[in-house]
Amino acid sequence: QVQTAESGGGSVQTGGSLRLSCVVSGLSGDSYCMGWFRQVPGKEREGVATIDSGGVTAYADAVKGRFTISRDNAKKTMWLEMNNLKSEDTAIYYCAAAQGIPGGYCYTRVLGPLYKQWGQGTQVTVSS
Question: Is the pLDDT of residue 11 over 90?
Answer without folding.
Answer: yes
